[in-house]
Amino acid sequence: MSERDPGTDQWQPWDREPRGQGQDPVPAPAEGPVWAAAPGGEPTVEAPQGAAHEPPPAAPSTPPASTTTTAPYQPISGSWAAQPPPPGALPAQPVSSPVPRRGPGWGALVGATVAAALVAGTTGGIVGGYLADGGGSSGGTRTVAAPAPGAGATTRPQGSIANIAATALPSVVTLKVEGADGGATGSGWVYDDKGHVVTNNHVVAGAGGSGSITVVLSDGKQVSGKVVGKDASYDLAVVQVQGATLDPLPVGRSADVVVGDEVIAVGAPLGLDSTVTSGIVSALDRPVTPGEQDDQSFINAIQTDAAINPGNSGGPLLDMDGRVIGVNSAIARVPGSTIGGQSGNIGVGFAIPSDQVVTTVDQLISTGRAEHPIIGVFLDSQYDGQGVRIADSGPGGDPAVNPGGPADKAGLKAGDVIVAFEGKPVADDGELVVKIRARKVGDSVRLTVRRDGRERDVTMVLQGSQ
Fold this sequence. Notes:
By secondary structure, the chain is mainly β. It has 7 helices and 21 strands.
């Protein structure tokens, strides 16, 4: 990892926008899980030893600095190199969607003791490259009607997994993305009655400015989609569906979720559309920092043992009331456990909490960009002691503490060590950044800082940057 660059409006992982000195290259992750018959696949990342850093504050005109962790993180893009599927490969089916209403809005574990690698949730190869048409329309002026709920919506008790799945599936879609470098597929779900679909940034990133996005409904019909906003830091994106009338999913409060709650994951794992799995919430506030140099993300994740595989990325994690409480984004794997360079579910998956999703997605719909909370410091990536150290200086001799930023106003100085955030210890840069990014601009936060062997608490108000 390298030190943060305070010369930006927002804190971002250094590997996202390499700036100046001290930046260590982030190794490319291994390949993620994929079907035995599928040639493509999703890259995976090795389990991190530490966490990503808090991106440094900088002048509004300067590009944001980025943070990285000691381990390589990279969301799986599920790309296929624009190649035909191998003989006998099965085509992927379109995904269906969950319950209606307005909806909120893969990588390595940060600070985790388990050696695992995170795999992004899009899937490639023949599975992601060839979606069944299902007789649907992919263009024109005709408007496609929303798919009908399955039989379980009426023949199974309300609140049962079958009932929730049948009701929700019509609002979950499969996204087929094609760009200059190939393509990928992932999942998404309907956020509102204006046709906005929520997914992961790494699902649609491959489309670039000239690529195309095909939205495959749960009944197989296909319509076009267009990205209206995306943010790599939160790994979220919004796609506007064109030519279909879809019902939104209801969104719940992730703040009300507790460990042990039952959950349902819906999406297109490995290109298998309309797949439903269930499990429980196995942990909360799990810092995860997937990503490469150009698009590292910081997720204060909901951990679940519901089966999630490449292709589930962007799909909803539902509670037992059929409400979205998270967006499935990553899975973990034990290093060396891949077959043919691919990895699959081991019962440790991660979702972006719905409260964060709502905040970010509303911003993306409104302005096309998301605002990131920052404290305005450049972190020392070479420091290996307790806590997170503020660097002596930034790249090019810039100050390590952004003048006039939250940290500066709170009296922090170069060389100070941040040992706790809101009373909870922080082990590394990535973990601190995740905790900060999980808050909102304008929130007051308390940091415990050590200087000259003495610790004291300081309070600061988070600033925003894009």
